[in-house]
Structure formats: structure tokens, C-alpha cells
């Protein structure tokens, strides 16, 4: 059977599935004749008709084919992924029936553009639902997994959140800058540096753009960036990636309290903006029905109180070595997550000891053992933000380099910020994938990036 378009029909108007204002046929009333291009997402064959769910990246459209339209070679080999253009009348679905947006396309003609395999290679076989997202075959087929509703929804929410950050910063008059990825300094310790040969010199992939952001504030005011950061994490956990998207900001002429208030504000504003769009709000609801918008102020807790809290549980929450926590311990991922899940609120955990935090952090006046530092912890994921006030004094910074065994030479440009008009300033970095995992109820950050990079995984 060879299909021909019926030229006596009205000319079809090109549409995308996001367009909801197209006239629908109902009863005697004719609907608009449209042509829509996309891919088959699902199909259901009945005796009289074939039902296709079409996707075009903007939604789902139910399409009904009957008569000769179901009998072509193309139709008999329709498969998930087949790309085609369908022509027909848009109608309201009959009462008692459901379809996306309450409408369906009554197809009168179609042209297949690219067939997709319907045999053992079919998408449905390559990406079976039972497989877990940590399995290598699912990761190898990430390019096909992305065609699924869940993966696509997470990517859409991520896009909305990234835009909400950009909007929030613009509204707060922050300037966006774009620091380099090739660097010769470390920010967060040597153990997670990716080292490379840079035309004969030693260089690294950046761990954080913080030091560069600090150089922007004198002339640009508060600044931010959304760039990739790289960590050679040797551990396979559900919240560590080798390459992640880092939302970082630096605020000038602030104190620690200002920084904490700003963190509450940026997080709350971004969620508000994201959920103000009904399409995104519906995606979040579907992915994470239990998502609760945090209320301000967030719970605040000093590190030393967290240590007491862990020990006061019955039974006490122990370190990874199975011991009681003592002041100076790094609170490990498992303990931190248990605490956050039990408290079940966003927490601003502050004032970490000097020894377990980065070299640049400012010490608290009242207790020189601790820093003006903060981690934001969220139920389900744990830490999503790390931030602090920065050392202002030249000498103090030189001492910190010494303590950390850092050669000050490569840091001259950073150190000189203290020489040419220093200021009280601070900032933070937020892991976008962790934020998305929290908002979208994802078990791991791996499903929150397009193509996750972690230990032993660098493809597709
Ligand atoms: O706590 P971190 O290491 O802080 C910094 O890098 C600061 N220099 C940022 C700054 O002040 N501008 O990292 C900040 C956040 C973490 O809270 C976490 O959300 C995320 O970055 N992060 C990771 N996300 C995924 N995979 C990893 N391996 C990550 N390491 C950090």
C-alpha cells in the first residue's frame, strides 16, 4: 500500500506539541488540520486502529491511525524511536477517555523519516525497566535512556533550575563571569586533583572557580558562575561525580550572617521560580510527590552541636570506623545523611574545625579553633552546598599555605587580593546535580546529569 495525501483536505498547519491553543474538533465542529513531527514513544495495536504516543521533546500526543494507514510496511514495522511526520485533524477525546491534554490526532496521512529497529535491537530491549540505573548496560545506553520519560523530566527540571539561578542572580545584581577550567592551583585539597600536562607544564582541571571569583569582586561587585568542576574522587558513592556542574558565588563586604541569609534566600528563590512554571511544577510533582518547599529560616546548627547530637542518639551514630564522634572528626557521608534524614529539614551546619576545612577559610573571632564555614544539608542527599568567609589578611593566608604545604608561588594572583585593598567577603559552591537529586527525589546524582562521569566511567 502506498499512501497519498488527500489534496482536497485543508492545508495542514505545522505544530509542536507544546501548542495547546489549537482548535479541537468536537461533534460536528471540525478541528484544525495539523502536521506534527516527532518520534513514536509507545504504540498499541487494536483491531480497528493503531494508537501511537508521539513525542517531540515538548510533550506527548495521542495519534489514531485506521484503515489503510495501519497496513503499510512502515506501519507494520513501527517501533519506539521511529521518526515521522503525521498529518490529521486534532480532536477532543471522547468523554470517558483520557489522552495527554485531552486531545488526539486523527491521522489522515504520514511520512516515515527514520525507522527504528523493532527486533532484538529495539529500544525497549536495550533499556529495560527492570534494570537498575547503576548497571553498566544502562549507563552504556544512556543515550537511549534519555528518551525515557523519567530521564527527560529530570533534564527539563534541571534546565528550569539553571535558568532560575541565572534569574535570581540577575535580580540580585550579581555579575556572571566565566573562570578557566585549566588551572595551576588547588582549592579543595590535592587528593581529588586531575593533573595534566599543559604544554610541558603541570596543570589541573579546576576543582572550584572560587579563587577566580574572588578576583572579580573588586571591580564587578558580587559575582557568580555556573561552570564545570572536576574531582578525581576515588570513591563510588551516589553523590560523587568526577565532573559536575558547580553553581558558585562570591559576595563582597559581607559578614557570616549575611552569607547565611543569602544562602537561604537564593535556595528559596530558585525553588519558587522553578515551581512558578506549571509545566515544571508538574514534572517535579510526578518525579517527587513528597517534595516539600523549605521554610525560612533554615535550621542552624554548629558543628560542635552536631557532634553532640550524633553521640546523643540512641544508639549513637558512629564514625565510619565504628567509633563515637569527637571534635575534629570529619562527619562522614553516612553519618551526615542519617542526621539530615532524622532531622528531616534543611540544615545550615556551621563552624567546622580549621583542620578539616580548606586553607582559605576565615577563623571565628570567638573560637579560633573553628572557621566561619557552612554546609547546607538536605534530607535525602546530605550536603549540597559548601561555603565560607575568606581570610582577609596577607600574613594569615601565607601561614595557611604553609600549614597545608601549598607553594605560594602559583597563588600570587590570589594572595595579591589581600595586598591591593582587601575586604570581608565570602561565598559558596552548590552542586547542581545534588540540588536536582534533592528536588527530583533521585537516588543518585548520576541520573541528574546528561552523561555522568565518575570513577571508571567516561562514556558515552
Ligand atoms: O564543599 P566544596 O568542595 O566547596 C568548594 O569547592 C568551594 N570552593 C566552593 C566555594 O566556596 N565557591 O564543594 C561545593 C559543593 C558541594 O557541597 C557539593 O554539592 C558539590 O560542590 N560537590 C560535588 N558534587 C558532585 N560530585 C562531587 N565529587 C562533588 N564535590 C563537591
TrEMBL record:
Domain of life the protein comes from: Eukaryota
Gene Ontology terms: cellular component: cytoplasm
Catalyses which reaction(s): tRNA(Asn) + L-asparagine + ATP = L-asparaginyl-tRNA(Asn) + AMP + diphosphate + H(+)
MF annotations from Gene Ontology: asparagine-tRNA ligase activity; ATP binding; nucleic acid binding
Domain called Aminoacyl-transfer RNA synthetases class-II family profile: residue spans: 155-452
Enzyme class at the top of the EC tree: ligase
Keywords: Aminoacyl-tRNA synthetase, ATP-binding, Coiled coil, Cytoplasm, Ligase, Nucleotide-binding, Protein biosynthesis
Localization, UniProt: Cytoplasm
Gene Ontology BP, a term: asparaginyl-tRNA aminoacylation
Keyword Cell cycle: no
Family: Belongs to the class-II aminoacyl-tRNA synthetase family.
Name of this chain's protein: asparagine--tRNA ligase
Biological source species: Calycina marina
Amino acid at each position: 500500500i502506498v499512501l497519498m495525501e488527500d489534496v482536497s483536505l485543508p492545508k495542514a498547519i505545522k505544530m509542536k506539541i507544546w501548542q495547546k491553543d489549537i482548535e479541537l474538533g468536537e461533534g460536528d465542529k471540525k478541528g484544525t488540520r495539523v502536521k506534527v513531527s516527532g518520534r513514536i514513544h509507545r504504540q498499541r495495536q487494536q483491531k480497528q486502529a493503531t494508537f501511537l504516543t508521539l513525542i517531540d521533546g515538548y510533550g506527548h500526543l495521542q495519534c489514531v491511525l485506521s484503515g489503510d494507514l495501519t497496513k503499510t510496511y512502515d506501519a507494520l514495522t513501527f517501533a519506539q524511536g521511529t521518526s515521522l511526520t503525521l498529518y490529521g485533524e486534532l480532536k477532543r477525546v471522547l468523554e470517558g477517555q483520557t489522552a495527554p491534554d485531552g486531545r488526539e490526532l486523527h491521522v489522515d496521512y504520514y511520512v516515515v523519516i527514520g525507522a527504528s529497529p523493532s527486533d532484538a535491537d529495539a529500544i525497549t530491549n536495550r533499556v529495560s525497566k527492570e534494570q537498575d540505573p547503576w548497571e553498566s548496560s544502562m549507563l552504556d545506553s544512556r543515550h537511549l535512556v534519555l528518551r525515557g520519560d523519567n530521564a527527560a523530566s529530570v533534564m527539563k527540571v534541571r534546565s528550569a533550575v539553571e535558568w532560575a539561578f541565572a534569574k535570581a542572580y540577575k535580580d540580585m545584581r550579581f555579575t556572571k563571569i566565566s573562570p578557566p577550567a585549566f588551572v595551576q592551583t588547588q582549592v579543595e585539597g590535592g587528593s581529588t586533583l586531575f593533573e595534566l600536562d599543559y604544554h610541558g607544564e603541570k596543570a589541573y582541571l579546576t576543582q572550584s572557580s572560587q579563587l577566580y571569583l574572588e578576583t572579580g569582586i573588586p571591580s564587578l561587585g558580587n559575582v557568580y558562575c555556573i561552570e564545570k568542576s572536576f574531582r578525581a574522587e576515588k570513591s563510588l558513592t551516589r553523590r560523587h561525580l568526577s565532573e559536575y556542574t558547580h553553581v558558585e558565588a562570591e559576595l563582597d563586604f559581607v559578614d557570616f550572617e549575611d552569607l547565611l541569609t543569602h544562602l537561604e534566600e537564593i535556595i528559596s528563590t530558585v525553588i519558587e521560580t522553578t515551581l512558578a512554571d506549571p509545566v515544571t511544577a508538574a514534572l517535579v510533582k510526578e518525579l517527587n510527590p513528597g517534595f516539600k518547599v523549605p521554610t525560612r529560616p533554615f535550621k542552624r546548627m554548629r558543628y560542635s552541636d552536631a557532634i553532640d547530637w550524633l553521640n546523643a542518639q540512641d544508639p549513637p551514630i558512629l564514625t565510619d570506623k565504628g567509633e563515637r564522634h569527637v571534635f575534629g572528626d570529619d562527619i562522614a557521608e553516612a553519618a551526615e545523611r542519617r542526621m539530615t534524614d532524622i532531622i528531616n529539614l534543611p540544615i545550615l551546619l556551621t563552624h567546622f574545625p580549621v583542620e578539616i576545612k580548606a586553607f582559605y577559610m576565615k577563623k571565628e573571632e570567638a573560637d579560633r579553633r573553628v572557621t566561619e564555614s557552612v554546609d547546607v544539608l538536605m534530607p535525602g542527599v546530605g550536603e549540597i552546598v559548601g561555603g565560607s568567609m575568606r581570610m582577609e589578611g596577607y600574613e594569615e593566608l601565607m601561614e595557611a599555605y604553609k600549614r597545608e604545604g601549598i607553594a605560594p608561588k602559583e597563588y600570587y594572583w590570589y594572595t595579591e587580593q589581600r595586598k591591593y585593598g582587601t575586604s570581608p567577603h565570602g561565598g559558596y559552591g552548590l552542586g547542581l546535580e545534588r540540588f536536582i537529586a534533592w528536588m527530583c527525589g533521585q537516588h543518585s546524582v548520576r541520573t541528574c546529569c546528561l552523561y555522568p562521569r565518575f570513577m571508571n566511567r567516561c562514556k558515552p
